[in-house]
TrEMBL record:
Residues of the signal peptide: 1-19
UniProt cross-references to PANTHER family, sorted A to Z: MUREIN DD-ENDOPEPTIDASE MEPH-RELATED (PTHR47053)
This protein's UniProt keywords: Hydrolase, Protease, Signal, Thiol protease
GO BP terms, alphabetized: proteolysis
Organism: Brumimicrobium oceani
InterPro entries listed in its UniProt record: NLP_P60_dom, Papain-like_cys_pep_sf, Peptidase_C40
Protein name: NlpC/P60 domain-containing protein
Family to which the UniProt record says this protein belongs: Belongs to the peptidase C40 family.
Superkingdom as given in the UniProt entry: Bacteria
Length: 300
């Protein structure tokens, strides 16, 4: 009888452990799918349950979801403590062996977060919110300084010059001119609010191309460029069209379609880490899941 009891106890422990791991897997899955509200609620529930006190995983995902949700002005207004709370959580993680292992195991996830926060900082700078900008700058310097930029991660390496695909589909002369000017600007550094060959941000780059090769003055923000553009379905996209991205809180990035060969899309854009560069958005786990849509300012 005692033997049977031990076996049942072992089975019960095994089942409990699996359930705990399942809960953590669900946090990761939902976060990867951009379900930040769901992650925030679930992480809080797990933190309130003493059964999960053995791990920092719920605390880690709570901090991630806070930083993503805070990019919504409405949410951040009601949770003004979120950035500081996340900062303190990450400091605690860095001070323990398990916490450091969690951070090491989620390097790519953190590199994506770093890119999102840099883009948010640009928007804060543009809108004159120096207080929140300073909070994020401290967070990046103190917490994510040793995390590689997403463009330097194996999953999202920019395309080397020798691997750039030249468009083989026939396109108009105006589209060819847009691509030619884009080529000339490869390597120009990223600069917040930049819109000249001395430095570009994402929407500054598209503004510059539109003015020089399309004879049009575009709105300065990526979200406004998307609203004003003529929407294009994926199957009708051509080089010279714009591709827009949503980080979960609205349109936050724009690039220029460079090639549509091989049933994929390469874009040229202003990357926060490497400046004007080319990336295959369907080969990039970062860009692929953030595509919001395509738009154009060209008539043919």
């Amino acid at each position: 009888m005692y033997k049977v009891y031990l076996i049942l106890l072992a089975l019960l422990f095994s089942f409990t452990l699996s359930a705990q791991v399942l809960e953590f897997d669900q946090l990761e899955m939902r976060y990867d799918q951009g379900q930040y509200q769901a992650v925030y609620r679930k992480a809080n529930r797990l933190l309130d349950n003493p059964e999960y006190d053995f791990s920092f995983v719920p605390r880690y995902y709570l901090a991630l979801s806070q930083l993503q949700l805070a990019q919504s002005k409405r949410w951040y207004k009601r949770h003004s403590y979120a950035i500081q709370d996340a900062y303190e959580s990450f400091l605690e993680l860095k001070q323990t062996h398990e916490g450091r292992e969690i951070l090491r195991a989620h390097t790519y996830e953190l590199s994506v977060l770093k890119s999102d926060l840099k883009q948010w900082m640009y928007e804060l700078k543009r809108d004159g919110d120096q207080k929140t900008f300073d909070l994020l700058e401290d967070f990046l310097n103190m917490i994510l300084d040793d995390v590689p930029d997403v463009d330097n991660m194996k999953e999202d390496l920019i395309i080397p010059e020798e691997d750039i695909i030249t468009e083989t589909v026939s396109i108009s002369q105006q589209r060819q001119n847009v691509l030619a000017l884009s080529d000339d600007l490869l390597g120009v550094p990223y600069k917040w609010a930049g819109n000249t060959p001395k430095g570009f941000d994402c929407s500054g780059f598209t503004c510059y191309l539109a003015e020089k090769e399309m004879g049009k003055t575009l709105n300065r923000r990526a979200v406004d460029q998307y609203k004003a553009s003529i929407k294009v379905k994926r199957k009708h996209v051509k080089p010279g069209d714009f591709v827009f991205f949503d980080n979960g809180s609205g349109i936050s990035h724009v690039g220029v379609v460079y090639s549509t060969n091989n049933n994929s899309i390469q874009m040229i854009h202003a990357s926060t880490s490497v400046g004007i560069s080319i990336v295959d958005i369907y080969q990039s786990s970062y860009w692929k899941q953030r595509i919001a849509g395509f738009g154009t300012y060209l008539e043919e």
